[in-house]
Amino acid sequence: MEHARNRVTFGKPIAERQAIQWMIADSAVEIESLRWLVLTAAWQVDRGIDSRQAQSMAKLHGGLKANEIVDRVLQMHGGMGYTRELPVERWYRELRLLRIYEGTDEIQRRTIARNLLKGHATVRGHLG
Ligand SMILES: Cc1cc2nc3c(=O)[nH]c(=O)nc-3n(C[C@H](O)[C@H](O)[C@H](O)COP(=O)(O)OP(=O)(O)OC[C@H]3O[C@@H](n4cnc5c(N)ncnc54)[C@H](O)[C@@H]3O)c2cc1C
């Protein structure tokens, strides 16, 4: 956001362009949704509830969204985002790992789907 406020193109800060505002808004919504997924899993752990479904959901969604968000951050920084003068390109590479270690995306999806198909978990508000 600091970069968007400071970077002026064609006479205006890019923060005033709707395309950039949408990137900021979408990222904020995704970060907030992630916070709730993580808090749900943590709340279940605190109460001794089986939280494996919530943990898999938080891990899967967190890895995917972190990658989408850092992609937007790099895009907002333009060519500078791609260079090694800023840390953004490193974040872009490092966050890719979130989709591989501690259970890949595919394995989290497998866990989530199996829990639903076997009736160990429900889609709240719709099933069960
Ligand atoms: C930087 C880094 C740090 C790591 N740190 C640790 C660590 O501290 N401790 C640790 O134990 N491990 C660690 N790992 C290992 C990591 O957990 C594995 O890389 C990961 O589990 C994937 O296993 P793999 O690399 O053997 O890929 P593979 O098992 O060969 O998987 C390749 C692809 O096939 C998919 N796939 C595999 N099996 C299935 C299946 N049954 N159904 C559907 N899709 C499938 C995978 O999701 C993936 O997309 C680390 C890896 C990296 C890169």
Task: Explain what the structure shows.
The radius of gyration is 18 Å and the shape is elongated. It has a single domain, classed as Up-down Bundle (Butyryl-CoA Dehydrogenase, subunit A, domain 3). Strands 1-2 form a two-stranded antiparallel sheet. A hairpin with a 2-residue loop joins strand 1 and strand 2. The model has no long low-confidence stretch (mean pLDDT 95). Helix 2 packs antiparallel against helix 3, helix 3 runs antiparallel to helix 5 and helix 3 packs antiparallel against helix 6. By secondary structure, it is mainly alpha-helical. The chain has helices at residues 2-6, 18-46, 52-76, 78-82, 88-96, 105-117; strands at 8-9, 12-13. The site of flavin-adenine dinucleotide has 7 residues, from helix 6.
Morphology:
elongated
CATH C-level = Mainly Alpha
Quaternary form: single chain
**Uncertain stretches of 5 or more adjacent residues:** none
Rounded mean pLDDT is 95
Termini separation comes to: 42 Å
Question: Mind telling me which CATH architecture this is?
Answer: Up-down Bundle
Q: For the report, how would you describe the main beta sheet?
A: 2 strands, antiparallel
Small molecules bound in the structure, each named once: flavin-adenine dinucleotide
List keywords for this structure.
128 residues; mainly alpha; Butyryl-CoA Dehydrogenase, subunit A, domain 3; two-stranded antiparallel sheet; 6 helices; 2 strands; elongated; binds flavin-adenine dinucleotide
